[in-house]
Amino acid sequence: MNSGHRFRHWLPCLGLLALTVAAEDLTVLDGRTFRGATPRRLDDDRLVIEHSGGQSTLFFHEVPEALRLRLGYDTEAALRRLTLEVFRLRSGPSGGTPERNPGSDTVRPRLLEPVAVPAPLAGAPTATPSPRAERWAGLETPAPAAQLAPVGTGQVVGVWELVNHYRSDPAASDARYRKRSFRVTGVVERMERGLVSRNVRVFLETPDPAVRPVCEWRIDDKIPAFHTRRDGRTLVAENNRSRWNLLEAGQTVTFEVRCDGLEDGLVELKQARLQR
Fold first, then answer.
1. Nearest-5° angle of CA 162, CA 247, CA 193?
2. Which fold has domain 3-83?
3. Which among 20, 179, 265, 273 is placed 20 to 30 Å from 41, CA to CA?
């Protein structure tokens, strides 16, 4: 039985999830805590839970590994499917989340409002406020990207500004950032290592999970071996004599990057070079 059929096999057994996994407090990898959470549906790439504040959907990369294992979730299979889906999306229209006109095959980018609240779930009773939410508290919405000149080499842009721009106006944001080199500053959320390359994708904390900046960082050839630990929250390098941490979640970093625009909710920041 292939992995896709195995996941579909879960769907007739939705009621069993509630019986096999008792209600408990669930803390996901971005720090949010859901009280009295009970899994209700497990799909190919996401988990639906009910909790004290209602119902929420979590993507597989947000769910702690221990819970994935308890539910029989195949992370490697999900990553393979996600990779294939990204390739499929890249072959189609780009430039933001697509929206199809009724009665037409025309696809156009969907414009979203600027981030008006500092936390993804601010004001909602579904989760205990995360300390990370304080990072965005009190920040003013930046000037629209359409009113700003294109960024220049060496110019520093914060994650708050970058995310707000791409959420509110992807086209104007592309004019300001895409195919341009600049420096981006933010806090490391997690890291993913490529299966065969020396590239590491560094996800930066974001005020809106619908728009996630990710820096593609190539590890220096002088480092013979490296891997991630703690569900991608620590990047470790090692040689024959020692082992040391290269990067950790919660660390503030600045990368020199070249922006490739917004694809499938990710602001792709290529050719990243960590500024020491």
1. 80
2. SH3 type barrels. (2.30.30)
3. 265
